[in-house]
Design a protein that fits this description.
Blueprint lengths: L1 E6 L13 E4 L3 E3 L2 E3 L8 H9 L4 E3 L4 H13 L3 E6 L7 H15 L5 E5 L4 H16 L4 H12 L2 E6 L4 H6 L4 H9 L2 E7 L5 E8 L1 H15 L9 E5 L3 H15 L4 E5 L2 H7 L4 E6 L13
């Protein structure tokens, strides 16, 4: 039996949870209050209410102890484990998994064990997991499944827009001055996750509605044929109506009726902020000509 593991950054919709599937918790902070993601947590709605009230947020990666705690019992049961991991371009979680898995492979030589970098985040990572679970259900071997994840991640496109530039300033994606001026001018940036798994601003759009349409424009530019889009994910930071607008645009342009909307959880939301909207789909590639970090 192949057990699939991922982490809380997937924002994976609970309606798609299956047997032999585990989501590792990730902690976050609100001011000095610690939410460990396991025993103590918040709903996404509560989290964004606190953000809007001005509470400061911070996050932690999945540490080695947590990976060991959740994965080793699976190996003791004789299961093979495939871990689809949060982008190494955004977190050290993947490096932690590689170190833990090296030791576990020596301890459980009869089990197959692999950590595969998703090079993605939020429901982009989640959509990759959705396709992985589907491939497992089709009877793929462990080796076939690992290769499938590696091949599919190269086509998993993620485009975001945020409503408040101050969170991008915290990430160092824009300067504080640019964030201030952009906010005054109602500038809404469009960002994407590149092939190295990094979050990169690629466009500036004036007005919220235009930024939402820009996400669908990118999908139209990049998407694989409609019959390849088995599922489309849209994530939002407590702005359902904006996410629904994007969904309606997709249905109108492409005739797709398999679009899933869900919350972006506290871990990713800590960095993107309330009002983030993100669109995830399969595309031809993950390259933007004005992304200097791809050079």
């Amino acid at each position: 039996m192949i057990h699939i593991v991922t982490d809380a950054t997937t924002d994976f919709p609970k309606q798609f949870y299956e047997k032999d599937f585990t989501v590792l918790p990730m902690g976050f902070m609100l001011d000095d209050e610690d939410f460990d993601g396991d025993k103590k947590n918040l709903s996404a709605k509560e989290f964004y209410d606190f953000m809007r009230a001005g509470r400061k947020t911070n996050t932690r990666m999945v540490d080695e102890d947590t990976i060991l705690k959740y994965v080793e019992p699976l190996l003791k049961e004789g299961k093979d484990v495939l871990y689809v991991v949060f982008s190494s371009g955004l977190s050290g979680t993947y490096d932690n998994a590689v170190r833990v898995f090296k030791d576990l492979k020596e301890k459980y030589p009869s089990c197959k064990l692999a950590a595969v970098d998703s090079y993605n985040a939020s429901m982009g990572e989640g959509l990759l997991v959705w396709y992985t679970l589907k491939k497992r259900a089709e009877g793929a071997s462990f080796e076939e499944l690992c290769k499938y994840v590696e091949d599919t991640q190269a086509h998993l496109c993620s485009y975001f827009t945020v409503d408040d530039l101050k969170h991008l300033a915290r990430l160092g994606r824009v300067t504080k001055t640019a964030a201030f001026i952009g906010s005054l001018a109602n500038i809404k940036p469009v960002l994407y996750v590149n092939s190295k798994g990094k979050l990169i601003p690629i466009a500036k759009v004036v007005s919220r509605k235009k930024s939402l349409k820009a996400l669908v424009d990118k999908m139209e530019e990049k998407m694989l044929p409609v019959d390849k889009q088995q599922k489309i994910f849209i994530g939002h930071g407590d702005c359902y109506e904006d996410a629904l607008f994007v969904k309606n645009e997709i249905e109108k342009r492409f005739g797709l009726d398999n679009v899933v909307i869900d919350y972006i959880g506290p871990v990713i939301g800590s960095h993107a902020g309330a009002g983030v909207v993100a669109l995830f789909f399969l595309g031809t590639d993950k390259f933007e000509k004005n992304d200097t970090q791809e050079d």
